[in-house]
């Protein structure tokens, strides 16, 4: 492998990892911090993408330069609202019943996927990137000397999301309450904290991040049916490798999975999936709580 090809594949791995991080960190927040099993997380990704498409094309066809920004806002809002409904109507009163939550969210994801198929059809969709992010920029030592501007933007968004969540969890009262709730929810409730409301807020943030990833991912590459399953499984692997509820762990897991996927496809495409699964198996064998996760009490 030449140096140029190596750097190009590494950059592809970094940009894919950025998208995986945005999707998986929402899953990690819900699963790792709230102990809620949400197998509809991929559905939240797909709902965000389709909600964005629903408002994007009418605005884009009218020549509105802000169509992508409105689509982004619509995708985030739609997923956040669906997440709040999921938590309040279905998951909130099933706390601690993991099997029940798993079956319910799988059923919901199937129903929502069928409705999206009926409304939007089975053809793949894709957003057009805004003019400022369209095309490519010079990047030395990669193939062709150019790289997609939007893919680099993905990395900037992922860094922004990670830094924003770190500020919320480490520097705000909400973050203190959430971290305390991970260790002892009963103690938190006894001190007068509205734990169900905190759970709804965290679920809304996690779902909104899935919607953000839906529009970002739907701009970088086409999306359609079954992307929900793909991103759900990816989120599971990333969180298992990195550690549930761990922000740096999710970032590390996304980086390992993204790099393994891209280098696997470049070096031995027929067996690239096995490389990702081998990483997950090795982590489960030697650090079952993830590389940067902690043992659950």
Automatic annotation (TrEMBL):
User: What's in the keyword line of the UniProt record?
Assistant: Amino-acid transport, Cell membrane, Membrane, Transmembrane, Transmembrane helix, Transport
Under CDD domains, the record lists:
TM_PBP1_LivH_like
Bilayer-crossing regions: 6-31, 43-60, 66-91, 103-128, 148-169, 195-219, 231-256, 268-286
Q: Does the keyword Transmembrane helix apply?
A: yes
What's the main place this protein lives?
membrane
Q: Name one GO molecular function term.
A: transmembrane transporter activity
GO terms under cellular component:
plasma membrane
- Membrane topology recorded in Swiss-Prot or TrEMBL: Multi-pass membrane protein
* Protein location: Cell membrane
Entry-linked Pfam families = BPD_transp_2
Q: Does the keyword Transport apply?
A: yes
What is one process in the GO biological process aspect for this record?
A: amino acid transport
Q: What family, per the record? A: Belongs to the binding-protein-dependent transport system permease family. LivHM subfamily.
Which PANTHER family does the record associate with it?
A: ABC TRANSPORTER ATP-BINDING PROTEIN, BRANCHED-CHAIN AMINO ACID TRANSPORT SYSTEM PERMEASE PROTEIN LIVH
UniProt-recorded name of the protein: Amino acid/amide ABC transporter membrane protein 1, HAAT family
- Which species? Nitrobacter winogradskyi (strain ATCC 25391 / DSM 10237 / CIP 104748 / NCIMB 11846 / Nb-255)
């Amino acid at each position: 492998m030449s140096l140029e090809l190596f750097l190009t594949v590494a950059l592809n791995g970094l940009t894919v990892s950025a998208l995986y991080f945005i999707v998986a960190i929402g899953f990690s927040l819900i699963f790792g911090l709230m102990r809620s099993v949400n197998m509809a997380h991929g559905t939240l990704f797909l709902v965000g993408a389709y909600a964005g498409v629903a408002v994007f094309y009418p605005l884009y066809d009218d020549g509105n330069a802000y169509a992508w920004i409105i689509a982004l806002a619509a995708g985030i809002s739609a997923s956040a609202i669906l997440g709040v409904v999921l938590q309040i109507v279905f998951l909130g009163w099933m706390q601690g019943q993991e099997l029940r939550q798993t079956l319910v969210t799988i059923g919901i994801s199937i129903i929502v996927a069928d409705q999206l198929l009926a409304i939007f059809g089975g053809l793949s969709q894709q957003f057009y990137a805004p003019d400022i992010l369209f095309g490519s920029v010079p990047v030395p030592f990669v193939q062709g000397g150019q790289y997609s501007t939007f893919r680099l933007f993905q990395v900037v968004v992922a860094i922004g999301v990670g830094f924003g969540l770190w500020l919320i969890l480490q520097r705000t009262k909400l973050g203190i309450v959430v971290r305390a709730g991970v260790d002892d929810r009963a103690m938190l409730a006894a001190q007068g904290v509205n734990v169900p409301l905190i759970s709804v807020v965290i679920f809304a943030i996690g779902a909104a991040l899935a919607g953000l990833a839906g529009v970002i991912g739907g701009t970088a590459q086409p999306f359609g049916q079954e992307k929900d399953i793909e991103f759900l499984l990816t989120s599971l692997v990333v969180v298992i490798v990195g550690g549930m509820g761990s922000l740096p762990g999710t970032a590390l897991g996304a980086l390992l999975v993204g790099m393994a996927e891209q280098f696997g496809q470049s070096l031995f495409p027929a067996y690239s999936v096995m490389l990702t699964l081998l990483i997950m198996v090795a982590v489960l064998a030697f650090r079952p709580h993830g590389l940067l996760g902690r043992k659950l009490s």
